Amino acid sequence: QVQLVESGGGLVQPGGSLRLSCAASGSIGGITTMGWYRQAPGKQREFVAIINSGGSSRYADSVRVRFTISIDNAKNTVYLQMNSLKPEDTAVYYCNGNLFNMEEQRWYDYWGQGTQVTVSS
């Protein structure tokens, strides 16, 4: 089974930093893209950042400059470095990956379980 395992969420004060990690496990034959999405209480899930296996990335306007996404292809892991955090960044952050499943011999979109990020003083 292929799955995404997230870590790094927690409570931080405004202006602080956190680094989220998401490691893909299982029989993975390749990565097209991996990214991050977030969902605040009572709101729809929204795009945060995405990166392809070659390192090209793009961001939502609300996080550009403050957040940085990166990927380690050898470890099948994507990271989200979050700086200058604001209360508006409070949400459950979800990892997404378009991965090739070697056992099923197909590309498929996978989602992590989510990790809570709370920005509060």
Please tally the β strands and state the result. 11
Largest sheet: 7 strands, mixed
- Taken as a percent bin, the fraction of beta residues is over 45%
The rounded distance between the terminal residues' Cα atoms is: 40 Å
Q: Helix tally?
A: 0
Mean pLDDT: 97
Question: Nearest-angstrom radius of gyration?
Answer: 14 Å
Determine the structural class based on helices, strands and strand pairing. mainly beta
Oligomeric state: single chain
Helix content: under 10%
pLDDT under 50 segments (min length 5)?
Answer: none
Order of helices and strands: EEEEEEEEEEE
Large-scale geometry: elongated
Short description:
About 0% of the residues lie in helices and about 60% in strands. By secondary structure, it is mainly beta. The model has no long low-confidence stretch (mean pLDDT about 95).
What this model shows, in words?
The protein is 0% helix and 60% strand. The mean pLDDT is 97. The protein starts with a strand and ends with a strand. The chain is elongated, with a radius of gyration of 14 Å. It has 121 residues and is mostly beta strands. Strands 2, 4, 5, 6, 9, 10 and 11 form a 7-stranded mixed sheet that branches. A 4-stranded antiparallel sheet has the order 1-3-8-7, with no helix packed on it.
